[in-house]
Amino acid sequence: MKSLIRDVPDFPKEGIIFKDITTLLKDDGGFRDAVEALHDIYRDVDIDAVASVEARGFIVGAPLAYLLGAGFVPIRKPGKLPAEVHEEEYELEYGTDRLQVHRDAFDGAKRVLIADDLLATGGTALATAKLVERCGAEVVSFGFIIELEFLNGREKIADYDIVSLIKY
To answer: HEC profile for the chain?
Structure first.
């Protein structure tokens, strides 16, 4: 899988080497291998729902939820969800952002896997965990395709189980 991930220099700004998973996703075998590898890890874990953050997280989380026989819960940017929401603000490198989830998103779902394409600084992951917990559910684990270890994102979510298929 690692060989299918493309490095894009100077994106989104000079000096950054962006790990582009679109080249993995467009490869039918690579995409299938990534989702099935996460499924293999979690297939015997009691999971009621998979939560993922838009947009690339949806690409990972939805098929994983399907394979696990679990529900799928989208975590969205502000203004995208039509019913009452919980909101969590988190820090970016330069400023803040917010995520939202429907207040009733985890009704009946007590054990949640958070799946995403990438663990970088951990801000998005921690905000997602806080939203899941605010809804009364338990974060069972985080499952990522890629982890950028040099950004130390794991430290922000160290209280949780974390799985990363590929590490840089």
So the answer is: CHHHCEEEECCCCCCCEEEECHHHHCCHHHHHHHHHHHHHHHCCCCCCEEEEECCHHHHHHHHHHHHHCCEEEEEECCCCCCCCEEEEEEEECCEEEEEEEECCCCCCCCEEEEEEEEECCCHHHHHHHHHHHHCCCEEEEEEEEEECHHHCHHHHCCCCCEEEEEEC
CA gap 59, 123 in Å, rounded: 20
pLDDT number for residue 68: 98
Taking only the tens place, the pLDDT of each residue in 150-160 is: 999 999 999 99
Average pLDDT of the residues in 95-111: 94
122 and 140 Cβ atoms separated by less than 8 Å: no
pLDDT of residue 95: 80
Q: How many CB atoms lie within 10 A of CB 132?
A: 26
Annotated catalytic sites, by residue?
A: 56, 93
- Domains delineated in the chain: 46-167 (3.40.50.2020)
